Amino acid sequence: MSFIRGSLITILLVALSLPNNSSASGQKIADTVSINGQFRLDDAENFDFKRLSVFTNHRPGKDSAWVEDGSFIPDDNGRFVISVPAGNWISMVVKTADPTIIDSDDAPDNPNHNEGVGFYGLEKGGRKTALLKEFYVPDGSPSQIELPIQLYRGAAFSVCLPDGMTSGSIQFHPVSGKRQNDMSMASFSDSKTVREPFIGGLNPGLWEVFYIDDDDRILKSQQLDLHRGQIFHEKRQ
């Protein structure tokens, strides 16, 4: 299924402060640094942190090849630990299997917040890249560094094509607010590829959804009352 989207999924990384320690500070200079990651949510009700994953690489310089560290799943409290060598650049990829996570562009404290028209498509059982982050861990860093990662939750709905619809688009917009007239669209060319996907990363509220064929005919329309942290599942006929 090919999605035309307003923006990627949502997530905001709190700035990482990496102090440059010297032996005069009295702290032990570490060759290997443990980064203690902590995912935080504005609404963690019924959220399974194990639906997030973290993959990291490291390299000593911009011209060096990446060395894989591996993939990590946070615990029930959203914590994870990765060990990296000091004096290296770290590449971090965070993915989500939960479509209620909002794209970082739409996060409430993002200055480019676009009032809730961002979205992404997520196939059932799939994962979506939520964050790409690169940062440097200098020599002389303490042996442990805290890394808080702030996430924000929105809402999602499952796609339910009307009978006989083989291709076309799913178009939707919020019913109220500054962006109520801005239509977002997810298109597909083969209904066989549309197997219970989700439209995720939406702001809570009342949305209008239209299923439109290639001849611009509206085959089905509906209003969905989306709640924070919830996925609206339409019962298939």
Characteristic key phrases:
mainly beta, single chain, elongated, 237 residues, four-stranded mixed sheet, disordered N terminus
Structure, explained:
The structure is a single chain. The protein has 237 residues and is mostly beta strands. The chain has strands spanning 11-13, 32-41, 52-59, 67-72, 79-85, 88-96, 120-122, 128-137, 144-151, 155-158, 168-174, 184-188, 198-202, 205-212, 218-226, 231-232. It is elongated, with a radius of gyration of 21 Å. It starts with 10 loop residues before the first strand and ends in a 5-residue tail after the last strand.
Low-confidence stretches: 2-29
End-to-end C-alpha gap:
22 Å
Strand content: 35-45%
Supply the number of helical segments: 0
Structural class by SSE content? mainly beta
Q: Looking across the biggest beta sheet, what order are the strands in?
A: 1-9-2-5
Main pleated-sheet profile: 4 strands, mixed
What global shape is seen? Answer: elongated
Helix content: under 10%
Q: Tally of extended strands?
A: 16
Mean pLDDT: 81
**Radius of gyration in whole Å, from Cα?**
21 Å
- Along the chain, the helix and strand elements come as EEEEEEEEEEEEEEEE
